[in-house]
């Protein structure tokens, strides 16, 4: 019989745990104050209520009224969660009461132990959350007694069919190594700089999990966990066949050796105003007309402006129905992890074939001060491994002068690099297009004039008689005599 699992109530954590918590085991959630330990446990209990399972919250620290007030604001079904409040009351201070959680005798139990056992037998919970277990430590006469009491309590709960989450406030002065040893699994929560949080599964006895650091956010609706793309298991890789898609412009198809291949990453680079977005829109339209679905993310321009601009140059995007979806992303409103997971959710919901990110610079704003390349690499390669085509639009800073492939050293990611560049000729500013590389096949190693007209993109014949365009110093050369 295979081991059952219980959902954590957080989809990202279930993914990391490869399906949820293995049943009838005990899991330690450790970390400093304010990192979301109690909230993680509340999601666990709320999921049990949702599944119709009996649950129990044993609170050693926060009063019941305070817990219910706080977590009802998160939209969790707190009313359906029984709370056994054994936190110290004001009478403890006024009357200087002292008590033991467990009786020193193996036969007699004190009133509190009786209260625990009575409640557990009455509810017979399938899920138990104990917060924080470290409070027991201060009530035990010695470390061994504490360890023995906790171990026996957890074994009792397991024998009763419960799956247990318990928390600890870990610190250098109050280590919890003993708790880590007796737990079947350990989940560590930590606050990093800039208000970022990281979750790490340190162990999960008898089960696989995705190792490493995974980012999470504390939101008004609880915890959102974002499994690291670079660490995700890839059992669900999508099988696909390469297919060449015509971009609908003869000269451009000639440059590309027939078109762009599905399942590849393409970088469209060039300075401001040269036509990168227009070319990306033409590519998305070609995908949609070929019976596939394109998802276009713009980080800079509003969607209405992009659609108007596309219409004005003969590339109407309306009428493509569900084959084309355009969305404006406000990068400062998302963390990099939230943005990546939004993209993945959109792909799943819309069954998308092509993803356009316009632009890399806009995406970098979501990353903030963190490194751009690891995030963009993980996203682009994850999409590619699952059969999606990717277009990355990159603005280079040099309008004229030395040729730059990309602004953020992202060219290594691309299977195909399409570059656009300005050319001054006879006191007129013109544009040229070329292909720098194409891993999937041959391409035309020439430069052609690139123009945006009212009827669409126009690609001229290969330029001859000019050299030095890439150096930024074009010169007229005489044709070789035959």
From TrEMBL:
Residues of the KaiC domain: 4-239, 243-473
Domain RecA family profile: 241-318
Superkingdom of the source species: Bacteria
Assigned EC number: 2.7.11.1
Keyword ATP-binding attached: no
Coiled coil ranges: none
UniProt entry keywords in alphabetical sequence: Hydrolase, Kinase, Phosphoprotein, Repeat, Transferase
Protein name from the UniProt record: non-specific serine/threonine protein kinase
Species of origin: Winmispira thermophila (strain ATCC 700085 / DSM 6578 / Z-1203)
């Amino acid at each position: 019989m295979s081991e059952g699992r219980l959902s954590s109530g957080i989809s990202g954590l279930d993914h990391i745990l490869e399906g949820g918590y293995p049943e009838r085991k005990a899991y330690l959630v450790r970390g400093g104050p304010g990192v979301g330990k109690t909230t993680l446990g509340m999601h666990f209990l709320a999921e049990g209520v949702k599944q119709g399972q009996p649950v129990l919250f044993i609170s050693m620290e926060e009063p019941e009224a305070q817990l219910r007030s706080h977590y009802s604001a998160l939209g969790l079904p707190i009313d359906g969660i029984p709370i056994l409040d054994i936190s110290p009351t004001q009478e403890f201070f006024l009357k200087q009461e002292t008590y033991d959680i467990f009786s020193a005798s193996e036969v007699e139990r004190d009133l509190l132990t009786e209260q625990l056992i009575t409640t557990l037998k009455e509810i017979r919970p399938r899920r138990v959350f104990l917060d924080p277990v470290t409070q027991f430590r201060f009530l035990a006469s010695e470390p061994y007694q504490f360890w023995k009491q906790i171990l026996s309590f957890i074994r009792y709960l397991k024998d009763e069919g419960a799956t247990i989450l318990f928390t600890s406030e870990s610190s250098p002065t109050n280590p919890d190594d003993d708790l880590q040893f007796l737990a079947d699994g350990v989940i560590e929560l930590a606050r990093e700089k800039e208000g970022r949080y990281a979750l790490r599964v340190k162990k999960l006895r008898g089960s696989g999990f995705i190792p490493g650091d995974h980012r999470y956010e504390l939101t008004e609706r609880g915890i959102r966990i974002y499994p690291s793309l670079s660490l995700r298991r890839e059992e669900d890789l999508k099988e696909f066949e390469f297919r060449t898609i015509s971009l609908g412009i003869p000269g451009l198809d000639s440059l590309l050796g027939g078109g762009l291949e599905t399942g590849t990453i393409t970088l469209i680079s060039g300075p401001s105003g040269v036509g990168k977005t227009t070319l990306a829109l033409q590519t998305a339209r070609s995908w949609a007309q070929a019976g596939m679905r394109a998802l276009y993310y713009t980080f800079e321009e509003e969607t209405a402006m992009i659609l108007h601009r596309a219409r004005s140059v003969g590339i109407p995007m309306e009428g493509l129905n569900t084959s084309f979806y355009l969305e404006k992303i406000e990068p400062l409103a998302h963390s990099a992890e939230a943005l990546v997971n939004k993209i993945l959710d959109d792909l799943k919901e819309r069954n998308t074939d092509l993803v356009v990110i316009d632009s890399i610079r806009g995406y970098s704003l979501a990353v903030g001060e963190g490194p751009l390349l690891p995030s963009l690499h993980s996203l682009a390669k994850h999409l590619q491994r699952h059969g999606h085509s990717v277009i990355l639009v990159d603005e280079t800073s040099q309008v004229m002068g030395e040729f730059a492939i990309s602004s953020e050293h992202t060219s290594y990611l691309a299977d195909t690099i399409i570059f656009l560049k300005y050319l001054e000729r006879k006191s007129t500013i013109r544009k040229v297009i070329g292909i720098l590389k194409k891993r999937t096949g041959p391409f035309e190693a020439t430069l052609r004039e690139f123009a945006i007209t009212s009827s669409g993109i126009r690609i001229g014949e290969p330029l001859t008689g000019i050299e030095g365009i890439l150096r930024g110093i074009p010169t007229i050369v005489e044709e070789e005599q035959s």
